[in-house]
Structure formats: C-alpha cells, structure tokens
Model the fold of this input.
Amino acid sequence: MRLGPILAACALAALATACNKTESTASAPAGGATASAPATPAPTHEEKKALLASYPAPYNTADLENGEAKFALCQSCHTITPDGANMTGPNLHGVFGKKSASNPDFKYSDALKAAGWTWDADHLNHWLEAPQTFLPGTKMSFAGLKDAKDRTDLVAYLMVETGHKP
Done:
C-alpha cells in the first residue's frame, strides 16, 4: 500500500481546515484577547486630496493617478507598505526625512552610504530622473523618468501614500 497519496490528502485536509478558521479564532491568543491593535484605516480620497494640497508647488497640483501608474515601474523592486519587506530595493515607506542609506536591514551601495543627504522631494526628483548620473556608483539599475511631470506626479504619489507631512 502506498502512503504518499494518503498522507498528501490528509495534509490538504488539515490545511483546508486551518484556512477556513476565522481570523479571530486562528490568531487570537488564549483568553480571547487580540494579538495586535487593528490596522489604521487607509486615508480616504478626500484626505489624500487635502494632504496633496498641503504640499509645496509643484507637488500640490500633481496627478496622483499618473503617479500611481508611474510607481508601477518601481514595484518590481520597492514597496511602500508600512513595515513592508525590503525587496531588490529598500521599502520606501517613511523615506521622506530620512538620511540616505539609513535602513539598517538593507545593503546599500557604497556611493549611497557616502551620499549623506536627507531624502526630500527635491532629492528624489533628481534621483528619479537618472539615478546613475545623479549618484555614480549606485546599485539602482532604473534608467530614470525623463518627463518632469511624471517625476512630480510620482514624488507626490509617494508623499501621499507614505503619509508624508509637509
């Protein structure tokens, strides 16, 4: 008698049972307490528009939909999720106001480690135009966004989506 198919069926049944549990049953510690505080709700469209309007020109009039479309070029290497993992590139959540190469969980190029600037809209705008020209020796292989409006929209999108306050 072959046990492989039987064991596989049992494993699938156990997995299906575990997946069908509700979140409160599957993740709650003994006694019914929740393991963590509920996540902060995402900002509404109106809250995003108000945040956008609070930025200095030209970012205050940016097209967030175009910025989101341009961020699709970045998503193969970066995430903007709070506490998200690093990928080929570092997580960009909270990047504004941070020193270059300051994420302790990411291995940066020596060039970026030595840059010593603080990320702001202006640095990011120039960086996104042509990373290797702006900072020779960077590991970032992105060719850049030549269109200034696309860069403005992308930077504004990143500011809004990461909750950057002016």
